[in-house]
Design goal:
heterotetramer; A: 531 residues; alpha/beta; nine-stranded parallel beta sheet; two-stranded antiparallel ribbon; 19 helices; disordered C terminus; B: 257 residues; five-stranded parallel beta sheet; three-stranded antiparallel beta sheet; 8 helices; 10 strands; 23% strand; binds cobalamin; binds pyridoxal-5'-phosphate
């Protein structure tokens, strides 16, 4: 699906942009490698099979990890203390119960006892990774059996009732009406919860809680629907917020197919501490790489707070950084759903052609990535008639510029989380545009010295300049200065910093041990990834 | 299934509806209040005025979302039940040949100043609609299609001349209720011209009719959006051929002045 | 405004199409030259200044013409009998009163008396033509003073309340909201009236009666608005139906700027007799040529009864015939608003690109004609949200293919004659597309061997074939066979045939005398017209 | 101008409105009848069902046009009158300096789980909105912007610490009436924490609030769509500086449990 270039971009400049992105990312990668977080540690316990929650709904992984952290900290990794203590318990659940009751003393064992604990830990997380691998094979089998969507872009639709049992029929209806990908968005509050709720949930605000059980229920329902509609319907959720690594693990173990997973979204839009985010993000991406999950990045969000023309280059910069972080974590290009959006003020002269220029630029910079094309939101108003029109032109830009995943815009964007009818109207809109304009790209040839080519080059130039400044100042400082989305987030601010620890020299984690091997294995990495 | 339902936005029972309208007032806070007053009178609870836009200086357009407090009782819904069996063209032809023993004559027209013939042609012309052939295709039907803009007296005269069994009239233009006036005028003219037993079956159709309005309009049957030729043929056979009773006329006298 | 060609059309084939059209038209032109109609005769009286109506609302031109027709027929022209009788009356009105009362005996005077009558007739119609010329100069002056719309296509909007006094504020509001051209559509019944109602009218169905007074009122209102908005707002009405020539005369005398005026519309869609229509049509076009009025033809209508893909070539054929008839009647290319429409079933794969192909074909065949681009109607449904979307793509096709006049589509097309809010939403739609995609034509280059070019050539080929058959069978037979819009209209059927007469050898009409001189004058005719 | 108006389609007094909704019933004639029943209950006369489309097997979406029989009485429209004089930044600064003699302290936040800061930032940040600078630009205002997702207790504590004169809260997410619940919770918390004379002025804003709901929500003022910083600054000066009386609190006790 490599797209053929329509823009006269200077390859040297593109190369330079990538080098600068790698340089800008490196200090943050080093930071991520040298720190751990409570969520990374809990994710390890989840991979080791610990599930369930106490009567107050606090998951046992939290109760257990908290107990360990209280007693010996997390900087060495909680695996050794946990699996050492496990010698006296039949399983992790029983250990967690006891730890929650205050009845376990955790310690960091010395060799050779530590070796036994490591062995137990490796044996425990092994099945977790095996399950992820099995789910990945299951997906591959289902896709080859049932089939992929017949067209690009894939049609991506959001469901958001707050109640998994309302979500399921809506998602199934949406798939039958044409959606190829279903995203269940999360309740407004979830990203700030430092635990992942348990079980099937029916009470979310503007979205449904991401839980292992909700994942399972929805995936099972969509498997059924996939067979009915004759194409594998992909399921998406959000590996974001304070529990990013755990959610990634749950996603992998429940065969989610795509996950929103941005290197900076939580920092900027949830005020989560930057270091926490970067550490969590690396772990979760490593899991996604294993699970064959397509990540979706969140550059679209910047354009809801910043101006889409002025800040166009910040999208490009962020895409390059997300690409770099993803490659480093072992994700190949074909799993990189880099985001961008149709958010230019529609009253601006030539706004549609500016959108085409930006969308083509992304398409051409990342020819092998399944780019995610996001609909207008900021300039949507309560005028739903106009809203449906703008969504139509968004769809058109998606077709003309060869986008890979198209998030379906809703005419009620400025009004409510989508109604069943909004989705139906929106899908009808997408179907019309995809069908009526299917081959229009054949006729679309922006001249090399024309408006579109000029604009794309201008944005690329601005991106290279900004990357240069970020290399000089440091990415963390750039974020603190409001470079992305005009949100100023200092490295020592935000939530969740208390859950971060610099790894001690003897830090050990059976999951990262495996994951870091992956990242070192070129086989997982797409040929493009290392250029 | 519950027999009482409410509109559905994204949760069962939420009652959500979308509404838009223009008020003949300049756009200001009072206008927005007026829009919400109307929404409240229509039974919207917690109405959200999501869009207000001046149209010129004296009008404002509004979009309102809200929860309708009204309940829909499915048991009280009145529908015109399909009182006839759906027949294939062959069945129609057989029934007419066997039971009536002569061709059944149908006269069709757009009356008044209405020139929209696509709908009546869809029913009458061989070409038909929705994959079905029109009534001209039925061997046992004799179809006289008078076309558009036929004056009511001309239609009555022609129906009499042709000894029509049924008259099929189309009305598409609805502005100022033209379709209703014309239909009533037509029904009255047939009543005046012919005694009860002699009148052809009167059928009107068009996209904006209410199927339940036959009696009120003084006709035998109203067809609306999505009608196909076989619907009409089946109905004609039911009313003119297979029904034991003579075509039953609605109580015309009391409805039309 | 000559458009530059994007399609690889064979110039020889285009040339052949025009030659065939001229040959197909010739017998009908001969027919038109050799017949007169009651409406042509009444139009002559209107040019001679006769106005007003009897107490029943029947215009004096009808009363007078009927009286003459009853006594001496119309085949010699009614001018001589009328202006001969006028010798005993102070003015035409008094003569008409008397004639209506049965108190006048009309006769065809012999020479030299006939010469005096001719003199009187010429002196009477002279001021009519002078007024038309003055109105034309007035328009030219206003346009150069106030200015033309800044953009193409011009935005053309319909007003249709039925009440001229509701129409006026709506038209003014529409102009302020962006309309460049206002059309007041006519009450459903008017085309079949064999007279033109008098005065200001407030009771039409789905449109407002075309009357001289309504023309005057609306034009005056729009003059006011033109100054306010800083561009000359054009006014459109319909020279169609049984009174086509009279309406044309009233339009010229009241400075209407465009008139719907098709060579076949009345035949096909109003079941008016073909000969009546062709005769009336020639006279009215001659008047329009004098008045500098842009005619709008009605090819769009065929696609409401026939399929827009199957019958695409009938549009092309009709455009070529309309062009031929118009040139013959003295209209230059810049007054030829040839019609075409976006009526392809939107569910058809590549429907939008088929629209582009058809629209480009028209654009390229008639590079100097102000093409009128008509919106979707047939496939519009009660789903107004979808309706607004389709209208957006219609607008886009208009911009991409360089259409000249864009009739604004309404989302409520399948529901009601437009509401004030429908127009506002529709204009907003047009504004968005025109503004956001202004320069998109720069990027639109359908390849010479691509889908669009192939389709355009296919349609042109089919059009040439059909023209060939029409030349062989005769246009009247083709119309009788349902060639256009699947409407079968035999030459001896339809309304108004009783108002047609073959001109006697001594036929004389002071208006046609002048108009036929025009047509012979190459000055009036654009250089393109005669090729 | 008449004080009684009706919606306007294309003729004065026609009452025409457009309506759309989904019913949780499969698409058939009964569903269409149900849609018309709802339209009738909402007061539509001669309602035309112009579009009906199945959404899956259990839902049907409808578009209805019709004439509303309800009248809008402009005299009965309740609007929150602008009870303050609109001031320029300079006038605001002068008034505070001259009459209050100290800076006026404003604490702003998005509370609950709401992370939509664009609205409150538009009011507070220098950048502002609609060509106006935000409150930070006003020399005599001290602005503390706590950002998003602030827990109510944290907001109260901070307001106390800063001795805030006014608290500005934004709520954008309205699903399940989150904005109303959060606002009531916030108002109650301030009531509990501080005695009447000591409480800061409570102002909430967001696109889907009803400006008339202040009393009911237990706050002093509600701002909605299209608010600009100078609206807010002028209001603050009016309530906290120029009004002779002390900031008048609505009768909080009786509204919120
Ligand atoms: C095609 C069309 C035309 C064509 C008509 C060509 C022709 N020979 O029919 C042309 C271009 C000539 C035309 C002209 C006008 N039109 Co027109 N036209 C339409 C259009 C686009 C489609 C109508 C159509 O063909 N529908 C397809 C047929 C198959 O559907 P149908 O009629 O509903 O028929 C089905 C059922 O209703 C039923 N049925 C219908 N009749 C009957 C009869 C019987 C006995 C039975 C059993 C069943 C039955 O069965 C049919 C098959 O399922 C509509 C807009 C739209 N999209 O609906 C406007 C529309 C109908 N037109 C309209 C108007 C106003 C006009 C004009 C009056 C405008 C003017 N002032 O100049 C003119 C004049 C026409 C006149 N004197 O009547 C308005 C009517 C507004 C209203 N609600 O009152 C509409 C809605 C457009 C609009 N929004 O303004 N029009
Ligand atoms: C931008 C945006 C975002 C950005 C927010 C970035 C940020 N830092 O603020 C991002 C992308 C992060 C985001 C995320 C989400 N969003 Co959001 N978002 C929007 C969007 C597109 C625009 C909102 C906006 O910025 N408006 C512009 C500002 C200037 O307008 P305003 O807020 O109305 O403010 C004005 C007035 O109301 C008033 N005002 C507002 N507050 C105050 C306060 C005071 C004191 C005063 C005096 C005045 C005042 O003055 C302002 C200036 O005039 C809307 C859709 C839309 N077009 O409206 C959805 C929307 C608000 N989001 C929505 C949702 C559901 C979410 C999510 C919860 C989705 C999810 N489940 O993941 C997430 C999570 C956010 C969370 N935890 O709250 C829904 C809310 C639905 C509802 N009605 O409940 C909307 C309507 C979209 C939709 N249809 O689904 N979103
Ligand atoms: C990249 C990305 N991550 C995550 C989210 C979801 O936010 P939350 O983490 O609050 O559920 C979004 C929302 O749009 C997003 O764009
Ligand atoms: C070319 C043409 N002439 C005339 C008319 C108007 O019809 P009538 O003559 O009935 O007013 C139309 C309507 O669309 C038209 O397209």
């Amino acid at each position: 699906m490599t797209a053929k270039p329509l823009l006269p971009l200077d390859p040297a400049l593109v190369e330079r942009a990538r080098q600068l992105a790698a340089r800008a990312a490196q200090p943050v990668v080093d930071l991520a490698r040298s720190h751990t977080t409570v969520s990374v540690e809990r994710a390890t316990l989840r991979l080791a099979g610990l599930t369930g929650a106490d009567p107050d709904g606090i998951p046992w992984v939290n109760r257990l990890a908290d107990a360990v952290a209280d007693q010996v900290g997390i900087e060495h990794g909680i695996a050794l203390p946990v699996f050492h203590a496990l010698k006296d318990f039949p399983d992790l659940t029983r250990l967690a119960h006891a730890a929650a009751a205050g009845g376990v003393t955790f310690e960091r064992p010395d060799e050779p006892v530590a070796g036994h604990a490591r062995m137990r830990a490796r044996r425990a997380v092994g099945p977790g990774f095996t399950r992820i691998a099995a789910k990945r094979r299951e997906r591959d089998a289902l896709v080859s059996e049932i089939g992929d969507p017949p067209q690009r872009p894939w049609i991506y639709l959001i469901v958001a009732t707050g109640d998994i049992y309302e979500d399921i029929p809506q998602a199934q209806a949406a798939a039958k009406a044409g959606a190829d990908v279903i995203a269940v968005i999360r309740s407004t509050g979830q990203s700030l919860l430092d635990y992942v709720p348990e079980g099937a949930t029916r009470e979310g605000f503007a979205g449904t809680y991401a839980t292992g059980e909700n994942f399972r229920l929805m995936r099972a329902a969509l498997d059924e629907t996939s067979r009915e509609v004759g194409r594998y319907i992909r399921l998406t959720n959000y590996a974001s917020g304070l529990c990013m690594p755990e959610i990634a693990a749950l996603a992998g173990m429940n065969r989610l197919d795509m996950m929103l997973n941005d290197c900076m979204y939580g920092i900027l839009f949830r005020d989560i501490n930057p270091i926490r985010t970067f550490v969590d993000q690396r772990f979760s991406r490593q899991v996604h790489a294993r699970a064959g999950i397509i990540i979706n990045t969140g550059e679209d969000n910047y354009l809801t707070t910043a101006d889409a023309v002025e800040a166009a280059h910040t999208v490009t910069v962020s895409q390059l950084l997300n690409e770099r972080f993803a490659h480093e974590a072992g994700l190949p290009d074909r799993l990189l759903g880099l985001g961008h959006a149709f958010e230019i003020n529609p009253d601006l002269p030539e706004s549609f052609r500016l959108e085409l220029a930006h969308a083509l630029l992304a398409r051409q910079l990342f020819p092998d990535a399944p780019l995610k094309w996001m609909p207008p939101t900021k300039h949507m108003t309560g005028d739903v008639f106009r809203g449906n029109l703008l969504d139509g032109f968004f769809n058109l830009a998606g077709v003309m510029t060869g986008q890979s995943i198209l998030l379906v815009g809703m005419m009620t964007e400025a009004v409510v989380t989508p109604w069943i009818s909004d989705r139906d109207i929106a899908l009808q809109n997408v179907r019309y545009v995809l069908n009526a304009c299917a081959g229009l790209a054949e006729d679309f040839h922006p001249p090399a010295d024309g408006f579109i080519a000029k604009r794309a080059n201008e944005v690329l130039g601005e991106a290279v300049d900004l990357l240069g400044r970020i290399v000089d100042d440091g990415l963390l400082n750039a974020i603190a200065d409001g470079t992305f989305g005009i949100m100023k987030r200092p490295a020592d601010g935000g939530r969740g910093l208390d859950g971060v620890a610099k790894r001690a020299d003897d830090y050990w984690n059976p999951a990262t041990e495996i994951l870091d091997q992956d990242a070192a294995t070129p086989a997982h990495v797409h040929e493009e990834a290392t250029r | 299934m519950s027999r009482i339902v409410r509109p559905y936005g994204d949760t069962t029972g939420d009652g959500m509806v979308q509404l838009s309208f223009t008020l003949p007032v300049p756009h200001d806070k009072r206008a927005e209040g007026a829009a919400l007053q109307l929404a409240a009178k229509m039974g919207l609870d917690g109405a959200m005025l999501v869009h207000a836009k001046a149209i010129g200086e004296a009008y404002t357009f509004f979009v309102v979302y809200g929860a309708s407090t009204h309940l829909v009782n499915l048991d009280e819904v009145k529908v015109v039940e399909k009182d006839y069996t759906h027949l294939s063209p062959k069945e129609v032809n057989d029934a007419i040949r066997e039971r009536l023993g002569r061709k059944l004559c149908v006269v069709g027209a757009c009356i008044g100043t209405d020139a929209h013939t696509v709908g009546i042609d869809a029913i009458l012309n061989i070409k038909g609609v929705a994959g079905e052939k029109g009534l001209e295709y039925y061997r046992e039907l004799r179809v006289v299609n008078l076309g558009a803009q036929v004056a009511v007296p001309d239609l009555v005269n022609r129906a009499v001349d042709e000894e029509a069994d049924a008259v099929l009239v189309s009305q598409v233009v609805t502005q100022k209720d033209a379709h209703l006036h014309n239909t009533r005028e037509m029904a009255a003219a047939f009543r005046e011209a012919l005694p009860p037993g002699k009148r052809p079956l009167l059928v009107v159709g068009g996209p904006r009719f209410d199927e339940g309005a036959a009696t009120e309009l003084g006709v035998d049957r109203v067809f609306t959006r999505g009608t196909t030729p076989s619907d009409v043929a089946s109905y004609l056979v039911h009313r003119l051929v297979t029904s034991k009773t003579a075509p039953q006329r609605p109580a015309l006298q009391k409805d039309v002045a």
